Amino acid sequence: MRQGELRGAARGTQTKGMTRTMPLKDPQPDTGVPRQSPAPPISSDHQATTLLQELQQLTGENYARCTQCGRCTAGCPLAEDMDLSPTRVMRLLQRGRVERACRSLAVWFCVSCQVCTTRCPQEVDIASTMDALRELARRHGFEHPGSREILAFHRSLLRVVRRYGRLHEFPLIRNYKLRTGHFLQDILVAPRMFIRGKIRLFPHSIAGARAVRRLFERSGALL
Prior knowledge:
Helix 2 crosses helix 8 (126-140), helix 9 (148-164) runs antiparallel to helix 10 (169-180) and helix 9 crosses helix 12 (209-219). The model is unreliable at 6-43 (pLDDT under 50). The radius of gyration is 30 Å and the shape is globular. The protein has helices spanning 3-21, 44-59, 71-75, 86-94, 98-102, 106-109, 115-119, 126-140, 148-164, 169-180, 190-195, 209-219. Helix content is 56%, strand content 0%. The protein has twelve helices and no strands. It has two domains: 44-143, Orthogonal Bundle (Fumarate Reductase Iron-sulfur Protein, Chain B, domain 2); 146-218, no CATH class. By secondary structure, it is mostly helical.
């Protein structure tokens, strides 16, 4: 018998042996109950589409209009301190990566100075977009870990404005310190501010306080 025939016979013997020693078994025996296929998980693409729709409902903007000219970043006074520049945030939104933009620290560094919106040649309201991204981050739990103190100030400010219809410094400072635990921070500055009338114990009342509260209720802002 030739050498090639011997190899073929050996392979045939090994195959037959594997067939005898490795029988196929049903991992789930038939019990008479029809099997149910698991529900398909929500895909990341579906979640990204939903977040983009929520963002566009809040802003009404079409981010495809952004040409990535960089004028927003060039005029932003805090762009150097941001982990993502305003231009990169707009690019993420164009690609549908809203969650990545919400998880950035840049949306919390934005002070809504409106420079980016004013400089945009396509008239994209970037400042309002940053505000909407902050709202989505709070709504879905996407806050950046480094935004704890900024978020505490953000919530304290909105609570004071909702209650009094305008900014009042004393409850703002009180709420911020209760949220952060920085009770001794700037404690030596407070007496001088009281003496100079920069901080008042009682707020000024305004005529449109109820209208301001209704605006907060209609917006559904989380405080």
